């Protein structure tokens, strides 16, 4: 199906998306410029920051509108995405709930590219996480496992190691992950590595063997099998598709 030019023009106008997200009270939405300053926000974010009007946030950074250490962490996240071009996907972290108290959320941040292929902005959402039967302490335990995977995805990561970091048994950690994400420990490790590999394949023209090694796969053929099983394409096919004009 071909999208007509006039529809593209509508999609290029962020106010339509902003209006839709204004109607979702448990999701924070934003677009930030290259300096990490808010350019588009939804009303949920405005309220969470203790403001009344959107223009009170526009031109400000997360560091300026969120209390520390939240603001500093969000700002550093933005800098990382803007510098590397690698999105943040389903990041379990704390943000402000409607009560202005800290609560858990899942955050996604994507770099936005201009016609010249350069990063021009960043868009993101943070969704309140209030899973039935999942206590705040359980979320904190899982967050420590996620942080370890993000910091060590290029090394060997064992389920036993993650469980020990969380102070849990493998069975308990699997239960926590299934309740929050619907996946197991091994699936989470694989997903994290494939997410990073996908971004690398879409980015710099590195050899596939080098990407495999960087993501913790010491055998390129094993990496290709896992990638194809997860994504539905081989790494080479994926790279070709995402570089097609």
Automatic annotation (TrEMBL):
This is AraC family transcriptional regulator. PANTHER family: HTH-TYPE TRANSCRIPTIONAL ACTIVATOR RHAS, HTH-TYPE TRANSCRIPTIONAL ACTIVATOR RHAS-RELATED. InterPro entries: AraC_XylS_family_regulators (IPR050204), Homeodomain-like_sf (IPR009057), HTH_AraC (IPR018060), HTH_AraC-typ_CS (IPR018062), PAS-like_dom_sf (IPR035965), PAS_4 (IPR013656), Tscrpt_reg_AraC-type_HTH (IPR020449). The keyword DNA-binding applies. The keyword Transcription regulation applies. GO terms for molecular function: DNA-binding transcription factor activity; sequence-specific DNA binding. It holds the Pfam family HTH_18. Residues 143-241 form the HTH araC/xylS-type domain. The lineage of its organism: Bacteria, Pseudomonadati, Acidobacteriota, Thermoanaerobaculia, Thermoanaerobaculales. Keywords: DNA-binding, Transcription, Transcription regulation.
């Amino acid at each position: 199906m071909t999208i007509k030019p006039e529809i593209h023009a509508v999609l290029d106008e962020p106010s339509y998306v902003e209006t839709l997200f204004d109607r979702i009270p448990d999701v924070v939405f934003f677009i930030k410029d290259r300096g990490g300053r808010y350019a588009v926000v939804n009303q949920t974010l405005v309220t969470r920051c203790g403001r009344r009007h959107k223009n009170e946030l526009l031109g400000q950074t997360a560091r300026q509108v969120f209390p520390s250490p939240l603001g500093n962490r969000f700002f550093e996240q933005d800098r990382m995405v803007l510098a590397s071009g690698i999105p943040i996907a389903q990041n379990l972290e704390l943000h402000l709930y409607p009560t202005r108290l800290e609560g858990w959320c899942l955050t996604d941040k994507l770099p936005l590219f201009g016609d010249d292929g350069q990063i021009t902005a960043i868009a993101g959402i943070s969704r309140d996480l209030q899973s039935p039967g999942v206590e705040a302490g359980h979320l904190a335990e899982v967050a420590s496992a996620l942080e370890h995977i993000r910091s060590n995805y290029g090394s060997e990561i064992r389920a036993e190691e993650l469980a020990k970091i969380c102070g849990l048994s493998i069975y308990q950690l699997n239960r926590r992950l299934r309740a929050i994400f619907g996946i197991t420990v091994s699936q989470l490790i694989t997903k994290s590595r494939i997410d990073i590999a996908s971004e690398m394949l879409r980015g710099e023209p590195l050899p596939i063997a080098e990407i495999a090694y960087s993501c913790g796969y010491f055998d390129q053929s094993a990496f290709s099998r896992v990638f194809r099983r997860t994504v539905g394409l081989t790494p080479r096919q994926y790279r070709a598709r995402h570089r097609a004009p």
